């Protein structure tokens, strides 16, 4: 491990041909979205609702929807920050093959990363979907129904239950996304973990999987992580400013010619 500078990171990016970026809550806190797990975060203020409780208990289902429609997840009106925009820049310049994210806020897509380049391990909080047929639903008509009837209607297509398109505690991880993330990780030659404590598994297994398959590992986080010792480069700092400076360094070092 080397405690590194943005110039070091830029050099690694330029030398790499297939970069994977892995993001956690830390990249979105600079957009005003609270970290769910940290002290003072959302889950320290209200207990998360287990998936099976949502399915089995109408009262828990009602509480889950009430939280969503009252904006208690802290995501309302959040906009991409400099960190998201820097990641999008690297994707759109062809350096980054995929962005694997633990976040559910859609800010990578909003920053300009194409949908097919984003792998969402924990789902997406900006829409709902049927638990059976996966039909997607916008929130506005669901909220209107909830206000009138006190509940969200079942899927108009198959009659099954609708839920916010996030992965709740106790809900199986999405098989397709996990497979895509594994394939992208194995194929990369540089894996950059950004804003993640790297404590939540199975998602946190991807950095080591990349290392095991010959990729270099970079960790950018405000605080040390348990995987810092495995990384070629470690930067502890504010994510948006660090990534913005890294992009500038990449351009200075000839990213356009890479």
Quickly name the level 1 CATH class of the largest domain.
Alpha Beta
Instruction: Indicate how many domains the architecture comprises.
Output: 2
- Rg, Cα atoms, Å: 19 Å
Q: Count the E strands.
A: 10
Regions with pLDDT < 50 over 5+ consecutive residues? none
Write a brief structural summary.
37% of the residues lie in helices and 17% in strands.
How are the SSEs placed, and which strands pair?
Layout (H helix, E strand, L loop, with lengths): L1 E2 L2 H10 L3 E5 L2 H4 L12 H4 L5 H6 L1 H12 L12 H11 L3 E6 L5 H4 L7 E3 L2 E8 L5 E2 L1 H11 L12 E5 L8 H13 L2 E5 L11 H7 L3 E5 L12 E3 L3 H14 L6
Parallel strand pairs: 1-10, 2-3, 2-8, 3-4, 8-9, 9-10
Antiparallel strand pairs: 5-6, 5-7
Helix pairs in contact: 1-11, 6-11, 9-10
Describe this structure in words.
With 258 residues, the protein is an alpha/beta fold. The protein has 2 domains: 1-32 and 80-122 and 173-258, TPP-binding domain (Rossmann fold, 3-Layer(aba) Sandwich); 34-74 and 123-166, SIR2/SIRT2 'Small Domain'. It is 37% helix and 17% strand. It has helices at residues 6-15, 26-29, 42-45, 51-56, 58-69, 82-92, 107-110, 139-149, 175-187, 206-212, 239-252, and strands spanning 2-3, 19-23, 96-101, 118-120, 123-130, 136-137, 162-166, 190-194, 216-220, 233-235. It has a 7-stranded parallel sheet with strand order 1-10-9-8-2-3-4, with helices on both faces. A 3-stranded antiparallel sheet has the order 6-5-7. Strand 5 (123-130) and strand 6 form a beta hairpin. The protein is elongated and about 60 Å long.
